[in-house]
Specification:
Chain lengths: ~150, ~130
């Protein structure tokens, strides 16, 4: 019994989830979000399985009208979404990128100056630490552990 | 009885897959000999050598170097690159033990790059005596 209920719930929820939803209605034609187009004066909000449609997006059997509508609908959705998000994202990313690059350049100058100081003060031993100073492993807090 | 056969077969496969050590028995004995230092001067000298050795010989870049540990980045996935770490363990009275570890992520540790045992032996020699 438990399994029958579970199976029923699963099947009904799946069927409901894939039902196309009404997107637009004009002059006796109903347009659904899966590309289906129905000639009808009254459009139902969801297109249940088995409805008589004038054109169903059924693999290779899609009508031209249905294909055009699907394409335009997808373009509108994608265009609206991308233009609204990307503009904000581009500005934010440019700002972050510029700030990071500036900070990194400043840190590199400081590290190079410190590496020069260690090299000058401790000769070959100090010079051997240059790579580790530039990579940030060694700085003013720990360099004395590794030079005399 | 079945279990015994399986264990023997597994052992035989593992032994067959492992590469024979490139170290002589004397070198292998050296490898297990702990490294100790005593006093600020000797410990600093050994610590400097440890950093230098890891910097020049490990298969990975150094990630951390402070008064207690020198370690490289880890070896992940199927990497053969040898990662290393040296830890300075206080024993009291100004005496320390330097513990060396080396590993790579590859399934068979014997084919790390550079060779794990050989690198550890060279590290011991360099840290103790400054010899390459």
């Amino acid at each position: 019994m438990k399994y029958i209920m579970l199976l029923t719930l699963l099947l009904t929820s799946t069927a409901f989830a894939v039902d196309p939803t009404l997107v637009r209605q004009s002059s006796g034609t109903c347009y659904y979000d899966d590309g289906s187009v129905i000639k009808s004066m009254s459009c139902s909000s969801r297109l249940s399985t088995g409805s008589s449609t004038s054109s169903k997006p059924n693999g290779l059997l899609m009508s031209d009208e249905s294909v055009d509508w699907r394409l335009n609908f997808a373009k509108q959705q994608a265009g609206a979404a991308s233009s609204a998000v990307s503009l904000q994202q581009i500005v934010a990313l440019q700002q972050i990128s510029a700030a990071t690059a500036k900070q990194r350049a400043k840190q590199n100058v400081e590290k190079a100056a410190f590496a020069d100081y260690v090299s000058t003060s401790y000769g070959q031993e100090g010079d051997a630490l240059r790579e580790l100073i530039m990579s940030g492993v060694i700085d003013s807090t720990n360099y004395q552990l590794f030079v005399d | 009885m079945k279990h015994r056969i399986l264990i023997i077969l597994a052992a035989a496969v593992l032994i067959g897959c492992s590469t024979p050590s490139s170290l002589t028995p004397e070198m292998q004995a050296d490898l297990v000999r702990p490294i100790y230092c005593e006093g600020a001067s000797e410990c600093k000298t050994m610590w400097k050598r440890a950093l230098r050795f890891v910097q020049l010989n490990a298969g990975k870049k150094i990630l951390k170097a402070n008064a207690a540990v020198i370690e490289t980045r880890g070896s992940y996935g199927r990497s053969k690159d040898l990662s290393m770490s040296v830890t300075k363990v206080p024993l009291g009275g100004g005496r320390y033990q330097l513990k060396l570890l080396a590993s790579c992520a590859h399934a068979y540790g014997t084919i790390c790059t550079p060779n794990k045992e050989e690198t550890l032996w060279r590290a011991q020699l360099f840290i103790r005596e400054g010899k390459e």
